[in-house]
Design brief:
By secondary structure, the protein is mainly β. It has one helix and 27 strands. It has an eight-stranded mixed sheet, with no helix packed on it. Strand 2 (about 20-30) and strand 3 (about 30-35) form a beta hairpin.
């Protein structure tokens, strides 16, 4: 969301075999979501970052082919060809832009001979893109820029070692590498730097036996004070597994549970949602049923958010959710 009245969402439309049919860009304006162009055949879009209402970037890829990059300028999205990035092997993941001339993209390499994934980073500095291969740990999942040529990254030691890790890049070099203090689920790592001196790292730690699918995970939340990262207790329901912090007194906590009539370990739905505003945690209603996840939270104000959710029975079917008046509502219903 670039304002309370305008925003963007990206994804893709699937074929019956769950391959990508075409890319999808949605634009929120005048209180409605509208599909806009361009559409790219056989491509799904994975991440968007708007550094200004009039400038932004989208990453995407198709199964078994090169990644795509789109740039928003002059009031329209156009596919962007950057030679230094097109020569890079791998698939574009999260894009995080600080300004029209400074930003980051996670590049995920295909599995190696041992079946493991490694990552690299693309960095735009002063308007020029380059690829950084020398990341301090092998699996970077997210980036949060805090200034020109200055960013923190989060991930795990490797695809086979789930030790949570943080690292700081500044002025062309890695200046700090920090273990998060435990093993984590690499698919649920997020990082939000509020400023160069304030930041939040959020993860899920496995429960007994290291199983991430039994609703026994615990949140691992670290806060950065400008000098060190420290594990903190946010004060939400301790049964919540998934946490997203937006500031010292603002955040979300979601509890996932098994439905009574479905014992499949992987079939979890959100059974409780809480949000913190002004230092007080409050319960939030969710009107849509069988929601297995809420992610891509975008803040409009302390009492208003947009997000994308996915259904329990179809991880390939998503919905747009709007939070206001203490309630998450499926947009359009």
């Amino acid at each position: 969301m670039t304002s309370a009245d305008e925003g963007w969402a990206v994804g893709g439309i699937l074929n019956a075999d769950h391959s990508w049919a075409q890319s999808l860009i949605l634009h929120f304006s005048h209180c409605q979501w509208t599909q806009v162009g361009p559409t790219i055949a056989n491509v799904g879009l994975s991440s968007i970052s708007m550094d200004a209402p009039t400038d932004g970037w989208i990453t995407g890829s198709s199964y078994g082919s090169a990644s795509v990059l789109l740039h928003y300028s002059g009031g329209r999205w156009q596919q962007k060809h950057v030679a230094t990035l097109e020569n890079a092997t791998g698939y574009f993941g999260n894009v995080r832009m600080l300004s029209p001339t400074d930003g980051w993209i996670v590049i995920e390499h295909a599995k190696d001979a041992h079946g493991l994934i490694t990552t690299a980073l693309a960095h735009e500095h002063n308007g020029a893109w380059s690829v950084l291969m020398n990341t301090p740990f092998a699996l970077v999942t997210d980036v949060s820029p805090v200034g020109p040529d200055d960013a923190w990254v989060i991930g795990t030691a490797s695809d086979s070692d789930p030790t949570g890790m943080l690292a700081h890049y500044k002025a062309g070099q890695w200046v700090a590498t920090v273990p998060m203090g435990g093993t984590v689920d690499s698919s649920h790592l997020s990082l939000r730097m509020v400023s160069p001196a304030v930041g939040w790292a959020m993860a899920e730690a496995p429960g007994p036996g290291g199983n991430y699918f039994e609703a026994v995970e615990t949140p691992l939340v670290l806060r950065y004070d400008g000098t060190t990262w420290k594990s903190v207790h946010i004060g939400a329901n301790p049964a919540a597994q998934r946490v997203y912090m937006f500031g010292a007194n603002e955040g979300w906590a979601f509890q996932l549970s098994h439905q009574a009539d479905n014992a499949d370990p992987g079939n979890l739905t959100i059974s409780q949602a809480q949000y913190e505003s002004g230092g007080t945690w409050r319960a939030a209603k969710i009107t849509a049923r069988s929601i297995s996840d809420i992610y891509a939270l975008s803040r409009v104000s302390a009492g208003e958010y947009w997000a994308i959710g996915s259904y329990q029975f179809s991880m390939h079917q998503s919905l747009l959710l709007h939070f206001a008046n203490d309630t998450w509502t499926q947009y359009g219903q």
